[in-house]
Structures are given as structure tokens and as C-alpha cells.
Specification:
mainly alpha, 20 helices, globular
């Protein structure tokens, strides 16, 4: 948060202390009503000291610039407390949804002298990155795993409604630059819970499908139907897509080797590589071995990849290879393969890979990079978060390629970095 002069800091702290005290003694319904009166309506709040403090903040130039941070923190004071009580968690989406009333309230003040103050600033808050992260958090908290591969959830809904499905995006999509340490810990906890639940659901479903296939071979369909209950596919992939992906991410992909075995052999060899230039040559060979479409690889992609690596820190080519160069190189590769920036994200290579190799083998290529350099895993997750944010308000049916990629990456990361064991599908 930006620096304030001493008086502004005192007013801001007064506001925070007010909510810190109230959240311990009042119920969510009372607190939401207070929020609505103070922030949405901007008039009629019972505590004049708090109203005066807020009005002084809203009247100052610095306060107007940082109002979104102040209001965001006020929201999180309640959210952080409610999140620790399962019975109060349902109030979090209600608090966040309350701000949708802001534009309507502001319109009533459109011809008033106060139109420039609190209602206007609150309305601006609803267009900020801080409020967007709150909306995503609301989706995660209210999610009841209603999505499934049976297509009951309309594909016309926006991509953003799928955020609960991808815990690996939470750190980048549910937190903003001004998030406190406490907020980060809460998101980490939610992420761990969601990840664990997905792994349990996936493990049960895969085991169920294997058992179902075995039973079907031994019994009639009638007796089978009575013996094994239905279990929902926890992904948005079809069964053939799901099992193809699992066999890619945990099974043998090149000869008798899995991706993990290939990565282990590569890193062992890299530790003895004489120079950084030699390492890049070896890395190129390691990656192109995954390009099963020879026509695509030899006609365009391989050459692009080779040039990318040759142009990566060429002044270090004669230097002895080290971990720092490994991290920097793999980060640059993920920029090249997924998305290069967050402003106007350039992701033509990623779309081209998915169009030619498919989402599963494209994900396999990314997995090979993360397996040889675990420290760039958060960087890969950030790349996908950038794309998610870029297409967040587009309908799912308009970005099927990205949905498939997100689902495949969920499987790849869960099976290689999580606690799930589905090696029996090899």
C-alpha cells in the first residue's frame, strides 16, 4: 500500500480497527448491512467518527488514488475472520455481491454535489483488479463441484466461472498486489483443500472406471449395474481424453520411459555439462523428442525452438552451466511456449502447438520443462493465469482449446507434483 501522511494513516487505521472490533462481536448479516450503509449508500452510518474518517480519506487526492486498496482490506478483515468458521463462509459471496449495487446507487447521486465522493469511489472499486480477485474468490467458495463432463453446465457461461476447478491458478488469480500475508495464507489453505479434494475425486473415479471395465468383462451389464455405483468424472474431459492424458503424464511416453524418468536422466547429465551452450543443445534434443508429429516439428516448430534457445543469453554460452541459468532458461522457454506478456499477451505459439499437437501433448512438453526445473512451476502457473485472465469473460465454448489445456495441466501437475497415484493406468 502507498505511503500516507500521518493524519491519513490514522484515519485509515481507525477504519480498520473499527471492522476488526466489530467482526468479533457481530454476525455476518449485521456486518454486511453496515458495509452497505457506509460504503454503498454513503450516508446514514451510525458511527459519526467512522463516517468522518472515511469522508476525509475520500476527499484527499491520495485517498482517492488508494481507496480501492483501503476498501479491499476492509473486505478482507471480514473475509479472513469468516473463512475460519464454516457456518459463516456463505456470507463471503454475499458481501462481495453487495458491491454490484454500487452503480445503481451512484446513479441516484448523478446530479448531486456528492457524486464525486464515496459512492463514486466505491463504483470505481468494482472495476478494479482488487474487486475482480474478490469475485473469483466468491466463485471458489460457492463452488459445489457441480461441473462435470456430462455437459449439464452451459458452455455459454464465461470461462471465469471455471476458476474453482484450477487450484494452481489461485495464487495468481485470487490475490492482488496489496494482499496481506494473512490473505495469502488463507488462499494457500483453500488451494490445498481444493487440490486434495480433486485428487481424491480423480483417484476414486479412475479406480472406479478400471474396476468397471474389469467387471464388465466378467459379468453381464445388468449385474454390473447393481454392483458398482455411479461416480462422476471430476474433469471436463471425456473418458477417452482423460485416460489418454493420464497415460501420457504417468505412463511410458518415449520407449520404456515416463516423463519423470526422462527428466531424471536429463538433469543427471546436465550436472556434468561443460558449458551453458552445450546444455542448450541437449535441452533442445530433450524437448523435440516429444514432438510426435514429424511434419509439424520439422517444418516449423523445431526451427523456432532452436532459434529461441540459441538467442537465450548467448553471451553465457561459454560459461559453466549452473542452476541460475537453468531457471532463467526454463522461464524464457515458458514465455515463448505459453505467453510472453500480461499486457497484450502474445500466445500464438501456444495456440499453434495445441492446434497441431493437441492439448495433451502440448501439456506434456510443458511438463518436461517443469520436471527438470521445479522452481519454474509457479512461473508456468502464472503463464496460464495470464491467459485465464485474458479470456475470463469469453464463453467457454469460444475457448475450448484453453479449457482443454487447463484441464490437462491440472492432471499433469496433480499426477506429478501431488499425492495422487494413478500409475496403475499405464
Amino acid at each position: 500500500m502507498n505511503e500516507y501522511n500521518r493524519q491519513s494513516q490514522e484515519e485509515e487505521q481507525l477504519l480498520y480497527n473499527h471492522w476488526l472490533e466489530l467482526v468479533q462481536v457481530e454476525q455476518p448479516i449485521e456486518l454486511i448491512d453496515r458495509f452497505r450503509t457506509l460504503f454503498i449508500h454513503g450516508i446514514g452510518y451510525g458511527d459519526r467518527t467512522i463516517t468522518d474518517a472515511l469522508e476525509k480519506i475520500a476527499a484527499s487526492k491520495q485517498g482517492q488514488q488508494d481507496f480501492k486498496y483501503i476498501l479491499n482490506r476492509c473486505c478482507h478483515i471480514l473475509i479472513n475472520r469468516w473463512q475460519t468458521y464454516p457456518s459463516k463462509q456463505a456470507a463471503i459471496p454475499e458481501l462481495i455481491a453487495m458491491f454490484e449495487e454500487a452503480p445503481k446507487i451512484l446513479s441516484r447521486y448523478s446530479r448531486s454535489l456528492v457524486a464525486h465522493s464515496i459512492p463514486k469511489l466505491v463504483n470505481q472499486f468494482t472495476e478494479s483488479e482488487q474487486y475482480l480477485t474478490l469475485q473469483r474468490l466468491a466463485k471458489v467458495i460457492t463452488h459445489s463441484n457441480e461441473d462435470s463432463s456430462n455437459g449439464k453446465t452451459p458452455a455459454t457461461l464465461a470461462l471465469g466461472t471455471l476458476i474453482p476447478r484450477y487450484p494452481y491458478l489461485y495464487k495468481h488469480c485470487l490475490l492482488s498486489d496489496d494482499s496481506t500475508y494473512e490473505q495469502q495464507k488463507i488462499i494457500q489453505k483453500i488451494q490445498a483443500q481444493k487440490q486434495q479434494q480433486f485428487e481424491i475425486d480423480l483417484s476414486q473415479y479412475v479406480a472406479h472406471q478400471v474396476r468397471k471395465a474389469q467387471t464388465a468383462r466378467r459379468q453381464t451389464s445388468i449385474s454390473f449395474g447393481r454392483n458398482i455405483p455411479h461416480i462422476k468424472n471430476p474433469t471436463l474431459l471425456s473418458d477417452p481424453e482423460l485416460f489418454f492424458a493420464l497415460k501420457q503424464f504417468v505412463g511410458k511416453v518415449e520407449g520404456a520411459d515416463t516423463y519423470r524418468q526422462l527428466a531424471g536422466r536429463f538433469t543427471a547429465n546436465a550436472s556434468t555439462t561443460a558449458s551453458y551452450g552445450s546444455f542448450k543443445d541437449d535441452l533442445y534434443e530433450y524437448l523435440i523428442s516429444s514432438i510426435t508429429d514429424d511434419r509439424y516439428g520439422k517444418s516449423q516448430f523445431n526451427e523456432k525452438l532452436y532459434k529461441q534457445l540459441q538467442n537465450t543469453f548467448p553471451h553465457n554460452d561459454a560459461q559453466k552451466f549452473n542452476e541460475f541459468l537453468m531457471i532463467r532458461t526454463c522461464s524464457q522457454l515458458l514465455n515463448f511456449l505459453v505467453v510472453e506478456s500480461s499486457g497484450r499477451p502474445n500466445h500464438f505459439v501456444f495456440i499453434d502447438l495445441i492446434s497441431n499437437l493437441g492439448p495433451t501433448q502440448t501439456t506434456g512438453l510443458l511438463l518436461k520443462i517443469v520436471l527438470i526445473c521445479n522452481k519454474v512451476k509457479p512461473y508456468l502457473e502464472k503463464r496460464l493465469a495470464i491467459l485465464f485472465g485474458h479470456y475470463e469473460f469469453i464463453s467457454r465454448e469460444g475457448v475450448v482449446w484453453l479449457v482443454k489445456a487447463l484441464e490437462n495441466l491440472n492432471l499433469a501437475l496433480s499426477t506429478n507434483f501431488g499425492n495422487i497415484d494413478v500409475s496403475f493406468v499405464r
